[in-house]
Amino acid sequence: MKTRAFVICGPTAVGKGTVIRQLLAREPNIWLSISATTRQPREGEIDGVHYFFVTPEEFDDLVEAGDMLEWATVHGVNRYGTPRRPVLDAIEAGRDVLLEVDLAGARQVRESFPEAVQIFIAPPTFEDLERRLETRGTEGPAERARRLETARVELAAADEFDHIVVNDDVARATDEILSIMSSIR
């Protein structure tokens, strides 16, 4: 059986995390990639489980060697990215790999690892996305507005992806992604 890397992308509050948890629960052969970061571990975080914690110099070396599938500087301070080697190791071990990334990350992966299958998770409507973001209540009005503006940009780029899955129901969206994964194997 052939295994692959699958990029999962979508706007804030679309339910990416929920769908990914369902994928992992339903298909034990899927491995969720672990990001590398230059930030310090928080209490309870374990190197190689939550993140690969690296020094800024080690991160630079990975980038310069082409060993990052994608990376970014977040809030002008810490860098995060997807190391190539663990992804390849998981694929070589016969596992499908999920990479949960933002739009910029998906575009970088398209360049650095073009064999990865790109899946965009979309809301049924923009109004549904607004409602989900407001209902979860984790952001104030200014942050919600900023996230919704970013979501408009991300939704406008959905056609860049190999597949678009509408998350109108978590179980149905999960089924659709599993079907995509199965058809590609």
Give an overview in words.
It is a single chain. A 5-stranded parallel sheet has the order 2-7-1-8-9, sandwiched between helices. Strands 4-3-6-5 form a 4-stranded mixed sheet. It contains 7 helices and 9 strands. It has helices at 16-26, 56-64, 84-92, 103-112, 126-136, 141-156, 170-184, and strands spanning 5-9, 30-32, 36-37, 52-53, 68-74, 78-83, 96-100, 117-122, 163-166. The mean pLDDT is 94.
- Termini distance? 6 Å
Q: Report the CATH superfamily.
A: P-loop containing nucleotide triphosphate hydrolases
Q: What sort of overall outline do the alpha carbons produce when their principal axes are compared?
A: globular
Under the CATH scheme, which architecture would be assigned?
3-Layer(aba) Sandwich
**Helical fraction:** 40-55%
* Structure annotation, total helices: 7
The CATH class label is Alpha Beta
Overall number of strands: 9
State which percent range the strand residues make up: 15-25%
Supply Rg: 17 Å
Number of domains: 1
* CATH fold-level name: Rossmann fold
The class by helix and strand makeup works out as alpha/beta
Topology as H/E string?
A: EHEEEHEEHEHEHHEH
Strands side by side in the biggest sheet: 2-7-1-8-9
- The mean pLDDT is 94
Runs in which pLDDT lies below 50 for 5 or more consecutive residues are none
Q: What summary fits the major beta sheet?
A: 5 strands, parallel
Annotate the secondary structure layout.
Elements: E1 5-9, H1 16-26, E2 30-32, E3 36-37, E4 52-53, H2 56-64, E5 68-74, E6 78-83, H3 84-92, E7 96-100, H4 103-112, E8 117-122, H5 126-136, H6 141-156, E9 163-166, H7 170-184
Parallel strand pairs: 1-7, 1-8, 2-7, 3-4, 8-9
Antiparallel strand pairs: 3-6, 5-6
Helix pairs in contact: 1-7
